[in-house]
Each structure stands twice: as C-alpha cells, then as structure tokens.
Amino acid sequence: MGNACSQPSDDQDIEVDHKRKSPKGKGKYGPSSGGVIKYHGGIFSHVKGEVEQTRQKHGDYDFSGNDFEPEDYDVIEIAKNHYYQGEYDDTRQKPIGCGIEVFPDGSLYEGENGGPGRLIKANGDMYEGEFDNNKADGEGTYITKDGQKYVGSWSKDKKQGKGVETWPDGARYEGDYKEGNWHGKGEYTLADNSNYKGYFKNGEICGKGKYKWADGDTYNGEWKDSKMHGKGVFKWKDGKTYEGDFQRGI
Fold first, then answer.
1. What pLDDT, on the 0 to 100 scale, is given for residue 90?
2. Nearest to residue 203, comparing CAs of 227, 229, 180, 228?
3. Which of 191, 207, 189, 210 is closest to 199 using CA atoms?
4. What are 1-33's pLDDT values in tens digits?
5. What is the pLDDT, as a whole number, of residue 30?
6. Which helix (H) or strand (E) is 183 found in, with range?
C-alpha cells in the first residue's frame, strides 16, 4: 500500500510516486465526481457479506505468475462504490494489467483485466478462469455458495463443450454442454447411485441411453423428455424382461 495508513482529510497534501502509482508527491484528495480520483484504505474493507465469506473460504487469488503485488498500489474510487487497486493507464481512469476490483453491486474481481482471473458475485458464487469481454469464456471453474461445482469449457458466460458438474449430495454429471444445458453425450449419476449413460438434448434425457436404478432395474433404449419413449428393453432385478415399445415412460 501507499505511505498513508488511513484515509486523510480532503485538504491534506500527499506525495505522488508515479513509478509506484501510489500517493507520494504534491496533491490533494478530492471527490470522485468530475474525473477526480479519490483514495481509500485497503480494498478488502469494501468487500462485504457473502462475497467476503466466499473470499475467506477460498483464500486470496494467486497472482504469483503475474509478478504483481497488490500492496504496491493504493486503492482508487473510479466511480461511486466502485473501487480498484492495481495497474491502470496514464489517465488513471482505466484499469489495465493486473488488479483487484470491487463493483457497485458488491462483486469482487481479482486477476488480469480481460482474464484470466477470479470473479466472486454478489450472491457468493465464484468463477475462476478465462474471460472474454468480461464474460466467462474458455476454461474455468464455477462454484456456487452452496457447493455445486462445474469445471470445464465456457462460451459467453454459458457452459459450452466438455465439462464435469458435481453436487454436495454426491450427484455428478460428465459430458457435453450446449448454451448452459446438458446436450450431447454424457453420464449422470444421482445421489442414490442411480446412473444414466447416453444422450441429452437441452437438459433432458433424449435419444438412446441406458438407465440403471439403485435397486438394480435397468432400461436400455430410446428416450424423450427424460422419459422412456420408443423402442427399448426393461429388465427387472429379479430377471424378468420386457422388450418393445414405450410411450412417455410406460
């Protein structure tokens, strides 16, 4: 951080060291309106509620690969309740390079401007990975505050491509995604250990696949809207078998 341990009054003189981009040299603090930058204390003092809980749970973001030390920069308020600590351009209005940013809605971003980085949303959910135009894009991990987790590919803030999704109760999906939905080939295991392997469409079981219930019954055949539909074979755990047509689960 800079030389000041606490925020000075509006009329206090400060020094500005342009090399370190922190107060040192002659100047005055002023309001953030009209393009004047206002300095504040540690940036995490502006992180509250569920965002702070998530940050404490997962720890500090790892800047080790970027040769960036947040404490080398003071905190600026670039708009009302919008705080930034890190590298910025000559106008001191536009963040560039690496930094930490707290947005007016309370969400927190740490990393390179434009990614990769980590975003903790106001509701406590967290995404860490690649970005494009401020949206999750590329490879990344999303963890909800309740512990649901997705690791895989993204496109324009939506799950897209290959990924693995897990739930705190032990349920798990691994396979293809399209625009945020299970779509294509995948495998879904429920908390009770029931298991489906096959095809999905727009988040529903659709096409050919095999479902095995926890009690040992199985169905191998065609599906529509997550119901047995079309030709298939149903086998009971006692050995009985039915082979033929099914209509919406019957």
1. 78
2. 180
3. 207
4. 233 223 323 333 333 333 334 333 323 233 333
5. 35
6. strand 181-189
Residue 69, both tokens: 């030390």
165 near 150, Cβ under 8 Å? yes
Cα angle at 212 between 207 and 214, to 5 degrees?
145
In this structure, is the dihedral angle defined by the CA atoms of residues 138, 139, 144 and 149, taken in order, positive or negative? positive
At 13, list the tokens: 């003189």
Residues 47-72: tens digit of each pLDDT: 999 999 999 999 989 988 888 888 88
Q: What are phi and psi of 103, to 5 degrees?
A: -90, 160
Token pair recorded at residue 81: 């309740």
What's the whole-number mean pLDDT along residues 92-100? 83
Dihedral sign, Cα of residue 193, residue 197, residue 200, residue 204: negative
CA 38 to the chain's CA centroid: 30
Distance CA 222, CA 205 (A): 9
Taking every pair of Cα atoms in the chain, the longest distance, rounded to a whole number of angstroms, is: 88
Give the domain ranges of the chain: 1-147, 158-250
CATH T-level fold of 158-250:
2.20.110
Amino acid at 63: F
Mapped onto helix, strand or coil, the DSSP state of residue 193 is coil
The model's pTM is: 0.81
